[in-house]
Inverse folding.
């Protein structure tokens, strides 16, 4: 079955960058957009952006413009999300999720915990 | 960005109760509305897509209504496994947004 497997826990200092990976298996990597969603402890879901693995086109939430970059490596069916200039407010679980237009985000990664300390 | 507002933010209910959650969009989104269920420590799970379509495996006690700006998720008879947080999400705009969530707790 389709799986999205994310990279492991990250602990960073304020001002650093973090890069989280999301490897897709069990289906064609280029057939679905990959969204990135984060969730701080006890808070709701916050959409960060998406990448089309076929074209490489991206779209980012205004809040993260200039600080986030979403890329992909088609040869290894992996999408990446890099967030720079980290602060403690970026401490959260980061999820990737595949989306087919009109069909919602139907498969999610297991989540990657990113902790940022000063 | 399109703002999604859910109500209530939380509710305490008993097994067997009927539960209704409302989601309102700040502008018309036609039927581009999805619902997710999330349990503590787990990734969200897609329940309903395109406003009215149950994802495969989702029990028929879940139903939805609405289009345009106002949508409703109903659980006809709450089961123990339904205690969770529910989120709506619009896919009308390329800039996706989620509602703030509705936590369904045991009374």
């Amino acid at each position: 079955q389709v799986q999205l497997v994310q990279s492991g826990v990250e602990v960073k200092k304020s001002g650093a960058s973090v890069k989280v990976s999301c490897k897709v298996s069990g289906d064609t990597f280029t057939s679905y957009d990959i969204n990135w969603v984060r969730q701080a402890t006890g808070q709701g879901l916050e959409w960060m952006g998406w990448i089309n693995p076929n074209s490489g086109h991206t779209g980012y939430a205004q809040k993260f413009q200039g600080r986030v970059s979403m890329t992909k490596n088609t040869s290894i069916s992996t999408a990446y999300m890099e967030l720079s200039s980290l602060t403690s407010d970026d401490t959260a679980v980061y999820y990737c999720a595949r989306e087919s237009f009109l069909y919602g985000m139907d498969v999610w990664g297991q989540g990657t915990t990113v902790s940022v300390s000063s | 960005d399109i703002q999604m507002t859910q109500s209530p933010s939380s509710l305490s209910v008993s097994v067997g109760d009927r539960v209704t959650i409302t989601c309102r969009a700040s502008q018309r989104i036609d039927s581009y509305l999805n619902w997710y269920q999330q349990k503590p420590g787990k990734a969200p799970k897609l329940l309903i897509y395109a406003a009215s379509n149950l994802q495969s495996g989702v029990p028929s006690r879940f139903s939805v209504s609405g289009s345009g700006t106002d949508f409703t998720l109903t659980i006809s008879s709450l089961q123990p496994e339904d205690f969770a947080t529910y989120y709506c999400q619009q896919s009308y705009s390329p800039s996706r947004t989620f509602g703030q969530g509705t936590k369904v707790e045991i009374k």
